[in-house]
């Protein structure tokens, strides 16, 4: 039996129980580790954020226990960050992060067999490491907007990505945007949408959950999950809710834009393991977002059996169908309100869309995604060996 490879993931951040950032990155790492691959993660931590946001400083090295007998080595070099300050076309913070990751990679023993970079800016760093150590490297792109050109000069990007082994795109939108930016070739790309862990997001009995959370049994409840900003559309939803009466709303997340109103049942951040309860307490999930790579929040809501109201833009094409969603112009508050009222006033339609969402969500199982990713990676590596 062939020994499983050692994979080094280069990522912007990594979650802990008390700081659940980039949970979708850990989700992929966990699933691949459970397949028998040895996994190391390099996730730089910003000392600037630690000071100004009062985030605790993490160890330079720690192990993430996935389950009995399976551990992921996590390396977190400390770096200073300086917002968007650039010098000679190069973002200073991005350069410092890149140097820290390259130095950190030298410490990983035994040396990994391949590199898996999350987002294109991490891919530039992976490309430089790849050239030095002659390792295959892959990039996973799922950005709402690819911003690598704002961090590095084009010449640096082209040089680093010249020998890229493959690209895993979270959506057709990400694939097309990557091609437009000439970051890779179409024959090196595969579209594999994001996924959910069905052990963490699943259908529950709505009335039991409402009783547990103290919500009324007969309320019509809308739920939103995402950052509280212009892109995700929290204030557009808040305005639309004034046209839906009577109705209640749950806002899960945090940010600068804070809606107010008597219709709000809950607003704020939640521990990741409690989100499933609040999703299951709702009747419909609404995310009037302007841009996504592939929305994890939508997939998680679908796995809880919620009909979806979201954008009619292409980034939703790979995960939503007319049977489980109403697609709207997310800048049109009246359209958002109309879609909510349509589902509010038609219990039969809600039930039908709920069943479709549950069925459709089964296509996005994290184990299936991990298998597809590793099959793609292994096939690319095998093909190169044969050349």
UniProtKB/TrEMBL annotation:
Residues 209-357 form the Glycosyl transferase family domain. Residues 23-199 form the Glycosyltransferase subfamily 4-like N-terminal domain. The keyword Glycosyltransferase applies. The keyword Glycosyltransferase applies. Keywords: Glycosyltransferase, Transferase. InterPro entries: Glyco_trans_1, Glyco_trans_4-like_N, Glycosyltransferase_grp1. One of its GO terms (molecular function) is glycosyltransferase activity. Its EC number is 2.4.-.-. Transmembrane segments: none annotated. Gene3D superfamilies: Glycogen Phosphorylase B. PANTHER family: SULFOQUINOVOSYL TRANSFERASE SQD2 (PTHR45947), TEICHURONIC ACID BIOSYNTHESIS GLYCOSYLTRANSFERASE TUAC-RELATED (PTHR45947:SF15). This is Putative teichuronic acid biosynthesis glycosyltransferase TuaC. The gene is tuaC.
């Amino acid at each position: 039996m062939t020994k499983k490879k050692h994979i080094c993931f280069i990522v912007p951040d990594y979650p802990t129980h008390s700081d659940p950032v980039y949970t979708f990155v850990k989700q992929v790492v966990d699933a691949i580790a459970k397949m028998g691959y040895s996994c190391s993660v390099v996730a730089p931590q910003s000392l600037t954020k630690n000071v100004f946001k009062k985030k605790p400083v993490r160890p330079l090295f720690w192990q993430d226990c996935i389950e009995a007998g399976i551990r992921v080595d996590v390396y977190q070099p400390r770096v200073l960050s300086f917002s968007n300050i650039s010098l000679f076309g190069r973002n200073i913070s991005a350069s410092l992060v890149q140097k820290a990751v390259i130095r950190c990679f030298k410490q990983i023993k035994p040396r990994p067999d391949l590199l898996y970079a999350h987002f294109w800016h991490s891919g530039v760093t992976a490309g430089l490491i790849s050239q030095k150590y002659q390792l295959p490297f892959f990039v996973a792109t799922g950005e709402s907007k690819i911003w690598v050109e704002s961090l590095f000069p084009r010449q640096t990007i082209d040089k680093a990505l010249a020998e890229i082994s493959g690209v895993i795109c979270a959506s057709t939108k990400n694939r097309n945007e990557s091609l437009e930016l000439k970051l890779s070739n179409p024959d090196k790309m595969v579209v594999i949408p994001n996924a959910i862990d069905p052990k963490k997001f699943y259908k529950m009995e709505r009335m039991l959950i409402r009783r547990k959370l103290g919500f009324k049994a007969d309320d019509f409840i809308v739920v939103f999950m995402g950052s509280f900003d212009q892109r995700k559309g929290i204030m557009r939803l808040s305005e639309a809710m004034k046209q839906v009466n009577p109705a209640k709303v749950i806002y899960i997340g945090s940010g600068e834009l804070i809606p107010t109103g008597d219709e709000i049942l809950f607003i704020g951040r939640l521990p990741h393991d409690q989100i499933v309860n609040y999703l299951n307490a709702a009747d419909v999930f609404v995310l009037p977002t302007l841009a996504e790579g592939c929305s994890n929040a939508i997939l998680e809501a679908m796995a809880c059996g919620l009909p979806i109201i979201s954008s009619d833009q292409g980034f939703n094409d790979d995960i939503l169908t007319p049977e489980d969603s109403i697609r709207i112009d997310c800048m049109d508050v009246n359209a958002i309100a109309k879609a909510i009222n349509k589902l509010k006033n038609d219990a039969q339609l809600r039930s039908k869309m709920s069943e479709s969402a549950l069925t459709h969500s089964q296509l996005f199982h994290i184990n299936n995604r991990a298998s597809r990713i590793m099959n793609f990676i292994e096939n690319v590596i095998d093909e190169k060996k044969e050349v």
